[in-house]
Design a protein that fits this description.
Length: 437
Amino acid sequence: MEEFKEVADSYTLPEAIREAQRCLHCKVPACKKGCPVSNDIPDWIAELAKGNFGNAMSIINSRSNLPAICGRVCGHERQCEGNCVLGKKGAHINIGKLERFVADFDWDAGLTHEAIPEPSRGAVAVIGSGPAGLTIAGDLARHGFRVEIFEMEAEPGGVLRFGIPEYRLPKEVVVREIKKIERLGVKFHLRTTIGLNFTVDDLFKQGFDAVFIGTGTGKPKQLEIPGINHPGVRQAIWFLRRVSLIQSGQMTSDAAMISRGDRVGVIGCGNTAMDAARTALRMGASEVFVIYHRTIENMSALRTEYDDAVAEGVKFLWNSSVIKINGAACGDKLESVVMRADEQESVVPLDRLLLAVGSAPASRIVSTTEGIDVDTNGYVVTRDNPYGMSSRPGVFAGGDVTNRPATVVHAMRDAKLVAEGIERYVDAVRLMAQIGQ
Ligand code: SF4
């Protein structure tokens, strides 16, 4: 679909080198401080400025397993670029765009071939193949572990594949980053649901030394509004997943629910709401309203995502709440919603309503495994030593399922710490076993 063509453009090679040459290579780099995974930004930019693309890639690889993805969807404005000293003069280095250039160039030219150690330190099962699972898998494989990923979907990638729309993150880029993880020796088991096909205990019986749960938050939160169960109301993540399946040819376009000319409301104002609103426009909606009960200062969406949504025609209704949903007399469309804003009530005609008000973890794994404590909202409780281990020895968790990170790169940062925790745990258990023999 032409409407879903990637929005952000890439650098040409001379443009990338020119941009890299602007970097001051600061002694105390503020950009690195702002990066959740402590990417050695000035070092790889310096290599890029000299045309040493392979060196630049190797430096990035030492901190990030998903650079082509991070270069596209990280919140650079709040992280590296927001901290760059040149930003004070009004023109920060475009670090995300450069990272994307290096990763794309390296893949296209086939430059980097990593030497991976023999997987002799132990075996780790990773449940879920979103950003946290892929990061853990990449780090552990690089450090001498045998890693197998168990994914319930027919395709790996989790939120990267089904949650972030094509125009922000082309699926071809996700597939490519996953191939790079496979090349590290990581094995993928698709259409395999832990808690249904087999359990965490079965994984230990199969010989895994540790299990990582990185299944994210698959259970969307619901609102209590009269009429909320009408079929014209859907979860935004359901809608985004449907559109992703349509684009990969696994569903026909009518499965998306939104059709040409529809008026669509989206409740919520995070990045998922922005993605759903912009995707609804691309599916042919005539008008899309984001409805948020607070003000623009309180929205959790990135400012760039908001600006892009406004530029594409999404309208924002601040300090507004839906208090009633009216279904149409026939069919599965809505007729209108009743809104309250500034103590005033009004009726807004709408055909569809999408909910983007957050989500919580599903309980399939913890309910089939003894000894994994969760908090009152269902998030897995973990400890700091070894980092990321749950109340069940050998079972670790990270990413959204623990309620720590909020974005792809924060999930990656958390996962890198959990990978270190798993390494320490498995090394210690194996050492104790040797001493005991
Ligand atoms: Fe380069 Fe900006 Fe980082 Fe300084 S802060 S090293 S100028 S990217």
